[in-house]
């Protein structure tokens, strides 16, 4: 075995890679005991891991031949980057392959929450109560975070006649990116005070745990809707539950809730206006195609090149890779 796949590539990329290297597809290892994965990776030179699989120094100790660790999605929380650098293991992530799909998820979420009657009918209620919806045109949307998916989202919203305000804890308000995206930078309190809707796409780090708390939500413009692709740890659960209950937030749609976020015992368990989806933002045919080709090509490059780069995230130019290699 040269390449171990825990996640499925699209058939064309899989066949392209298999024509050049021995490939083993073992999806059951994604949910298996860590010891099973360690035994499987012992002979692998490259591995495509699931989102949950953790790469630690201990993991690398059991993979003496490993040259590349790849994932089809963004986020490095589960990867010890320093240990990979020390072992000369290349980290490959198709991060920007999902930009448009995540942006469209956020846009779709805003539209769905503005016109919730449509969702009820789609869910099977043929005689659903007629709800008075709202229009995005003319409203103010706050972009909380300038993660890469915010860039296409800003263009989409502007084309619909939306006014954009924005805040990012890691981006100075004088940075040129705000002007390029035509987003007015404001303070966090001003964003939640002005916005009819808030789209959250912050590049999460542990220092941002419970970032959205009572102090922030005290400034909410009543009747707001929130959509998010950021890890749910970004939100203080009790504070969010209070805002959903008292009307400050009319409804919220979140795509990346961690285990237990709204389960029994959580303050959010009874919040009927909180909607959770299982990381659907990045799951489109097109984004999976871009990610599969990117990962397949970078793995092949790693196994055939004498000195590949150690850390590798897909540049924005990879957005057009769905057709495969030239």
Tell me, what's the shape?
elongated
Give the number of DSSP strands: 13
Task: Give the N-terminus to C-terminus distance in angstroms.
Answer: 27 Å
Strand fraction: 15-25%
Mean pLDDT: 89
What is the oligomeric state here?
single chain
Q: Estimate nothing, just give the exact number of structural domains.
A: 2
Radius of gyration: 21 Å
Kindly provide the name of the CATH class of the largest domain: Alpha Beta
Return the CATH architecture of the largest domain: 3-Layer(aba) Sandwich
Characterise this structure.
The chain is built from 12 helices and 13 strands. By secondary structure, it is of the alpha/beta class. It folds into 2 domains: 3-97 and 284-323, NAD(P)-binding Rossmann-like Domain (Rossmann fold), CATH 3.40.50; 134-276, Rossmann fold (3-Layer(aba) Sandwich), CATH 3.40.50. The strands form 2 sheets. It has a 7-stranded parallel sheet, with helices on both faces. The longest helix is centred in the last third of the chain and has 20 residues, at 285-304.
What are the main properties of this structure?
Rossmann fold, 326 residues, 13 strands, 2 domains, alpha/beta
Short description:
The protein is α/β, with parallel strands linked by helices and 326 residues long. The protein has helices spanning 11-18, 34-41, 57-61, 81-86, 99-114, 116-122, 150-159, 176-181, 188-194, 214-217, 237-246, 285-304; strands spanning 3-5, 23-25, 46-48, 68-71, 90-93, 140-144, 163-167, 184-185, 197-200, 224-228, 249-254, 274-276, 311-313.
Write the layout of secondary structure elements.
Elements: E1 3-5, H1 11-18, E2 23-25, H2 34-41, E3 46-48, H3 57-61, E4 68-71, H4 81-86, E5 90-93, H5 99-114, H6 116-122, E6 140-144, H7 150-159, E7 163-167, H8 176-181, E8 184-185, H9 188-194, E9 197-200, H10 214-217, E10 224-228, H11 237-246, E11 249-254, E12 274-276, H12 285-304, E13 311-313
Parallel strand pairs: 1-2, 1-3, 3-4, 4-5, 5-13, 6-7, 6-9, 7-8, 9-10, 10-11, 11-12
Helix pairs in contact: 1-12, 5-6, 5-7
